[in-house]
Design brief:
Elements: H1 2-24, H2 35-46, E1 47-48, E2 70-72, E3 78-82, E4 89-91, E5 104-106, E6 111-114, E7 128-130, E8 135-138, E9 152-154, E10 159-163, E11 176-178, E12 183-185, E13 195-197, H3 202-205, E14 213-215, H4 234-269, E15 286-287, E16 290-292, H5 295-301, E17 310-314, E18 317-323, E19 329-335, H6 344-354, E20 367-370, E21 375-380, H7 387-390, E22 394-395, E23 398-399, H8 403-423, E24 438-440, E25 446-448, E26 463-464, H9 477-482, E27 484-485, H10 487-503, H11 520-529, H12 547-560, H13 571-578, H14 583-592, H15 599-606, H16 608-614
Parallel strand pairs: 3-5, 4-6, 5-7, 6-8, 7-9, 8-10, 9-11, 10-12, 11-13, 16-20
Antiparallel strand pairs: 1-4, 2-3, 13-14, 15-16, 17-18, 18-19, 19-21, 20-21, 22-23, 24-25, 26-27
Helix pairs in contact: 8-10, 8-13, 10-12, 12-14, 15-16
């Protein structure tokens, strides 16, 4: 019997190995060509890529999982194409239909034109399709109705025409359908989406667009309440009730036994036991690429939230390094107070909105956990930590972040903030832009973190909040004095971040050094006026920096940190200036403009430290997050 048992285990193990090997070569033809590589290269060939974001998409490659903008599932198939806001134009190749394991296609905010390929209808696992903000023409393919797994469909802000396909009514799991601002015509099918938007289609709406939008604000249920499900009539219904009752009694009995055993085990071993209380955990639940985790999964992944796995601490909670069961490394943010981020409804709504903010320079939310007592967010693990943690690092006697890398970090951060401010709907204001919240991926590319805990805004220009949250040294004057934040609040924080990159110091710690007094911004202004910019550069760089670029970046930082928010540029203008477009004109104009100001205001603008010390709200300011 023992030999048979061993043989059985070996046979099962061999079967698992063969399955894994089979999955890894499932996309290979007999000649060794990967069909997914061929499909992706076909897409690349029909797209114009001015910023070379698809540079490493190589037809000679065997495995596309290491390519930029491509994410693969555990079994090695391409699951996500994330190419939003990359300046792409050209056509979308029908070859996309051969990526049959795709779950998310994110091509929003580019300039792709031509028809939407009908071949997309072959992607039976597709859950999120976002082609919004492009220049697609022609009709919406009927084949999209074949996407039975689809949750999110965004085709808004294109030039699509013709009828809205009746086939879309066949998709029962839709959460959002946005067809707004196209040239669609005809009657609308009965689409069972929680949010269905067709405003901005004159041939459907006419001059009155009020009735063109059907928007429900209820969050997605995680999972749906079984008590609200419509059951069949007659004996079948009674049978289901009987089965449900029997299952419930059995489940309760089982829970009592398990709970008793756990309590006994805890008594014997004096160990802490975690329960997923009232979690209603559904292991199959996904929202696009977003997964719902059980608290137990995350507890195991982080070693019972061990202090050894802490990556960073902040005002909203602690971030732990975790390893999921499949070996994936993650950053697990356990929020300090579950009630501080609102109830279940607010949390679910926030998670749903955050999951749609996807950009190469934003930290992607890949999962969450919500129980009666816990709120947890799960992000990809960033192997190079934060900018703050790497500024003082050295590798073989050289700074980990050399001058070109620091400039690339500035550009990447700016692109991420432009997306949050001007391409998200609703827009997102970060409220704590600083070096500790800019993470670095394996290529030292900047990834903006913690934006998911910022206030989500509608199309209004500003938002009044009752508590100032941020980091002293980064907080804009108007936010400190009134609690009113806007996009210009983030612009101010970005200007301070530029100074952190130049000086190698955190603004928060600047005044704590014995030889320094005041705050970083006042010190930089003084050195700029005295034409002593070299004195502010991080000594670890050992003069290995471009002096012309230094002057330009300091000017951008000073434009971003002007006292009056109206005088600060928008983040899209900041990005253009960092890329070499329009800085000279903007700087000259800022020096030329003379506006009457009281002596008090002049003093406050000249001395940021005075303003901080006099602020009545500064006591409420806090660090939202620490370095990871």
């Amino acid at each position: 019997m023992g030999n048979i048992s061993v043989f059985s285990r070996l046979r099962v193990g061999l079967l698992v190995v063969l399955m894994c090997v089979g999955a890894s070569v499932a996309t290979l033809s007999p000649s060794g060509i990967n069909y997914e590589v061929v499909a992706l290269v076909a897409m690349k060939s029909q797209l114009n890529d001015p910023y070379n974001v698809l540079e490493n998409w190589d037809i000679n490659s065997v495995d596309p999982c290491s390519w930029r903008m491509v994410t693969c599932s555990v079994d090695g198939f391409v699951s996500t194409l994330g190419l939003p806001s990359q300046g792409l134009s050209g056509k979308l190749s029908p070859g996309i239909g051969n990526l049959t394991n795709l779950q998310s296609v994110l091509l929003q905010n580019n300039a792709i034109s031509g028809p939407i390929p009908a071949d997309i209808g072959k992607l039976q696992k597709l859950q999120t399709l976002d082609l919004s903000g492009n220049q697609f023409t022609g009709s919406i393919p009927d084949s999209l109705g074949e996407l039975k797994s689809l949750n999110y469909l965004r085709l808004n802000n294109n030039s699509l025409s013709g009828h809205c396909p009746e086939s879309l009514s066949n998709i029962k799991g839709l959460t959002l359908v946005d067809l707004s601002y196209n040239n669609l015509s005809g009657s609308l099918p009965n689409i069972s989406a929680r949010t269905f938007n067709v405003v901005g289609n004159p041939l459907i709406c006419g001059s009155d667009s009020h009735n063109c939008s059907t928007v429900s604000q209820d969050p997605v249920s995680f999972p749906p309440d079984p008590s609200q499900a419509v059951s069949e009539a007659g004996g079948s219904r009674k049978h289901k009730v009987a089965v449900a009752f029997g299952a419930s009694v059995g489940s309760i009995f089982l829970i009592v036994i398990v709970a008793g055993l756990l309590l006994w085990w805890r008594h014997r071993h004096n160990q802490q036991i975690f329960f997923d209380v009232n979690e209603q955990y559904d292991p199959e639940f996904c929202l696009g690429h977003l997964k719902r985790f059980s608290f137990r999964e995350l507890r195991i992944a982080t070693g019972d939230f061990s202090s050894k796995n802490i990556l960073g601490r902040g005002g909203f909670g602690i971030v732990y390094k975790g390893c999921l069961q499949d070996g994936t490394l993650v950053a697990v943010k356990r929020l300090k107070d579950a009630n501080a981020v609102g109830g279940e409804v607010q949390f679910q709504t926030e998670v749903e909105m955050i999951s749609l903010a996807i950009h190469r320079n934003l930290l992607r939310l890949c999962g969450f956990c919500s129980t009666a007592n816990e709120r947890v967010l799960v992000y990809p693990y960033m192997p190079n930590g934060s900018v703050a943690s790497r500024l003082k690092d050295n590798i073989h006697g050289k700074p980990a972040l050399d001058w070109p890398t620091r400039k690339r970090i500035a550009l990447g951060t700016a692109r991420g903030l432009v997306y949050l401010h001007e391409q998200c709907d609703p827009k997102i204001i970060h409220r704590d832009v600083k070096a500790a919240n800019i993470l670095l991926d394996e290529d030292f590319e900047a990834v903006v973190g913690d934006f998911g805990l910022a206030k989500l805004l509608d199309h209004q220009d500003s938002h009044v909040t009752t508590a100032v949250r941020g980091t002293v040294g980064h907080i804009a004057p108007e936010y400190l004095s009134t609690g009113q934040s806007s996009e210009k609040t983030d612009v101010f924080g970005f200007g301070i971040l530029l100074l952190e990159l130049i000086t190698g110091q955190k603004a928060l710690d600047f005044g704590r050094v014995a030889s320094q007094k005041g705050v970083m911004l006042d010190w930089v202004k003084k050195l700029h006026q005295e034409n002593k910019l070299n004195q502010m550069v991080d000594k670890d760089l050992k003069n290995n920096f471009d002096r012309v670029e230094l002057e330009e970046i300091v000017q951008v930082a000073l434009l971003c940190t002007q006292y009056h928010p109206a005088n600060r540029p928008k983040m899209s203008e900041v990005l253009r200036m960092l890329e070499g477009d329009g800085l000279a004109e903007r700087w000259e104009a800022s020096q030329r403009v003379e506006t009457p100001r009281s002596k008090t205001v002049e003093k406050e603008e000249h001395k940021y430290l005075d303003f901080v010390e006099e602020s009545s709200l500064v006591v409420e300011a806090m660090e939202l997050s620490g370095p990871r």
